Amino acid sequence: MTTLKISTVALLLTATAAPVLADEAATCGTVRYSDPGWTDITATNGVAATLLEGLGYTPEIATLSVPVGYEALKNGDTDLFLGNWMPAQQKFRDDLDAAGTIQELVQNLEGAKFTLAVNAPGAEAGVADFADLDAQKDAFDGKIYGIEPGAPANQSIQAMIDADEFGLGDWTLVESGEQAMLAQVGRNANAGTPTVFLAWAPHPMNEALQITYLSGGDERFGPDYGGATVHTLARTEWVEACPNAAKLFGQLVFDVSMENVLMGKILEDGMDAKEAARGWIADHPEVAATWLEGVTTLDGQPGNDAVMAAVSK
């Protein structure tokens, strides 16, 4: 091939590639995802936002309840969700799968659990299983403390009450946000009041409170104390239009220990989620390298170099 021909081919390739990169930057520069108000998802969303900003993207995080968040994903109002807890959210996942417009990018966490638990006074009252609760109804004031209204776990608790399972038909579900619920549990523990509530790991509550997870809830919460995995979902159209950002999220996986640390910094140290994430990423460059393998900045530069430079400022 002559020098003229080689130069012509190079020019053609450059002319072809540049508009594609420009189009992707214009389409994908803002990445939209949601936060249901759970500290674990706030923490992982903060990690994602820190990485995205280091790569030149703009993260846009909307605070939406679980049902509204799934509708937003289904309707194309958001691009991603990092908090698909399974099997607790199976109903929502089935709806998305039926729509055929969403795909799973990765299982981002394993080793999680999610079921009812009691505080120390509750355990001292002899409650270790769902079946132990009703005999102690008066001590517990007939209340089960849940999280925000509309959450699938609350729906499972309410369904259990409605069906009078374990004799709980005359108990009441108290719905509130995660932090309000845990504040109530802590106050009750200090007052010596037995309390049953929705508990999960990862979460620093497991370090801050004496928690006894209850057996017997397999039908509603699954085996192994509601053993769960967490998944990242994305709109198929977004994945196709934004392969670089999608690659990042397909490689973005966490572990329980990491999330406990980040959540503790948010809840106990008062850090912003991105501030906590920047420190963690700076201290664990080897993990960040696996997340960013083959990922570039929005304008096509090496992604890992850009992120590490950003978190080191």
UniProtKB/TrEMBL annotation:
Residues 30-282 form the ABC-type glycine betaine transport system substrate-binding domain. Gene3D superfamilies: Glycine betaine-binding periplasmic protein, domain 2 (3.40.190.100), Periplasmic binding protein-like II (3.40.190.10). This is Choline ABC transporter substrate-binding protein. It comes from the Bacteria. The keyword Signal applies. It comes from Paracoccus maritimus. Residues 1-22 form the signal peptide. CDD domains: PBP2_ChoX. Keywords: Signal.
